[in-house]
Amino acid sequence: MPFGSVSVEDMRRIEENCVGLGISKLQLMENAGKAISDRVRHLFQGSRIPSNKAVVVCGLGNNGGDGFVVARHLSSEFSVHVVLVGCESALKTDEAQKNWDALKHLDYSVSLHQGPAIFSPESPLNNLASYDILIDAILGTGLIGAVREPEKSVIQLINRSKIKKLSIDVPSGDHTETTVNADCVIALHRLKTGTSVKNATICDIGIPQEAEIYTGPGDILFHRRADSHKGENGSVLIIGGGPFTGAPTLAAMAALRSGIDIVTVASPKAEIIAGFSPNLIVKEVGKELITLKDVKTLIDLISRHDSVVIGPGLGVDPETTTAVSKLISASDNVTLDADGLRSLATSEYTADSIVVTPHQGEFAALTGHTIPSGLQERIEAVKAFSREWNVITLLKGRVDIISDGAKYRLNKTGNAGMTVGGTGDVLAGLVGAFSTRLDKMQAASTAAYLNGCAGDLAFSRRGYSLLATDVIDCIPDALSEQSQ
Fold first, then answer.
1. pLDDT at position 143, please?
2. How far apart are CA 381 and CA 399, in angstroms?
3. In DSSP terms, which residues pair with 185 in a beta bridge?
4. How far is CA 338 from the centre of its chain?
């Protein structure tokens, strides 16, 4: 059983990653309902149940769906009355609909109430004193803003009653002016961060550790607001090039394909990079190399972007390395890759402001130690490095390891065809892009997963002939495929 709380966003990610592991949301709902019904039985264990009646008050989403399953499981021992706050035609998910449909066949042990009739004098809501327990499954963690009608009136009716109240996952309306005054809360999988805890317990709903540790489709659950404007969905600056022009271009094109609004490349030989795509904004900085003379200009550019990627194609000139250390010190949202990694040791920076994306050779150079061969030993090495250097590390490999020093994630997408040059630059661009909207641990996890998915698509089409540009071309298809 996992300990500690989990944020609403992370819980959604975990549930979607369960789907990626072959565990359906319907199965999770069944597990949740069964576990909660077992807890209800435990509450009455060893005591006489006065009326053998239970009322389950359900909303239109998956919290209500959990309630439908509870009602079905309790129906063998209780006379169960289900109150749907709304009409069945408005149920929001397939899982909730399927479990409602199952209840419609139980016309002997389950009584269903919905629509305006739930406020009638004969409704369970106006006769709560005759029931032994009320299961609150109205509103879950998806509530945004204040509680609206008819849920508000239902919660007010519930709170006026002295009936024993048990809430599923969180008290409906938690942290609003209209909250179910629950006697106990049964949290699913983990307590939700910020939940008003009153006699709370946790129930196992069959989520394996892999759903939290491994990246999956839940890691790319993000959407644009319909009314957003240019620049609101992120802007990233790529600083690189000089000796090599392809590397910063690949990073920039990958960032653009992630769904970000603006990508700027700051590089010597800007004219060459601009020729690759009209979609890129290119600023010429330096002559053949980036030097100390360019630091002031670059710091100004950094201040006008949400995140910066430093390193692709920079080269190893000592003055460039010194200049990069000053850029790192002037930034609060940095992705360091390739030659940019050389400047980490001489930079001053705030904790957790940097994601580093070394391959195994670069990681060995950073640590001064040979990388362990075993996965668990590599995980511990990455965690130790991240703690010591106060960075988020994405160690590239057959299994990517992402860690902030305490937590870690693993990514298994990708294939041997991605050893071709340039795929690391693609990954760095994606990390920089996702860092504009996600915390850096999540940005690195999302980028690793999407990069590998796009690489797997490219491999299915090109085999070992795939190129880094093929991976970039497959990013939109990978995003579309994973979000279905």
1. 87
2. 14
3. 167, 200
4. 27
Residue 241 lies in a domain: yes
- C-alpha dihedral over 46, 52, 57, 60, to 10 degrees? 100
Q: Copy the structure tokens of residue 371.
A: 């990388």
pLDDT greater than 60 at residue 1? no
pLDDT tens digits for 265-320? 999 988 899 989 889 999 999 889 999 999 999 999 999 999 999 999 999 999 99
Domain span holding position 46: 8-213
User: Which amino acid type is present at position 397?
Assistant: G
Q: Which of 379, 471, 473 is nearest to 425 (CA)?
A: 471
Are 176 and 225 members of one domain?
Answer: no
Distance CA 208, CA 131 (A): 36
Q: How far apart are CA 102 and CA 110, in angstroms?
A: 11
- Residues sharing a CB contact under 8 Å with residue 294, sequence separation 6 or more, in sequence order: 285, 286, 323
In angstroms, rounded to a whole number, what is the distance separating the alpha carbons of residues 213 and 236? 28
Same domain, 306 and 329: yes
**Euclidean distance between CA atoms 90 and 59, whole angstroms:** 10
pTM of the model: 0.91
Pick the last residue of a domain from 149, 184, 213: 213
Closest C-alpha to 195, from 221, 212, 222, 176: 176
Q: Is residue 363 part of a domain?
A: yes
User: Quick check: bond before 248 cis, omega within 30?
Assistant: no
CATH number of the domain enclosing 443: 3.40.1190.20
Per-residue confidence (pLDDT) for residue 46, from 0 to 100: 62
Pair (255, 153) in one structural domain: no
- In-domain check, residue 172: yes
Torsion, Cα 216 6 335 345, to 10 degrees, reads -130
Give the residue ranges of DSSP H helices in 308-421: 318-329, 360-367, 375-389
**Structural domains counted in the chain:** 2
Buried b (16+ CB within 10 A) or exposed e, 358-383: bbeebbeebbeeeeeeeeeebbebbb
What tens digit of pLDDT does each residue of 191-221 get? 998 776 678 899 999 999 999 999 999 999 7
Query: Are residues 249 and 189 both part of a single domain?
Result: no
Stretch (H or E) spanning 153: helix 151-160
| Amino acid present at 173 | G
Between CA 400 and CA 150 the distance in angstroms is 48
How many CB atoms sit inside 10 A of residue 445's CB?
Answer: 29
Specify the DSSP class assigned to residue 332.
Answer: S
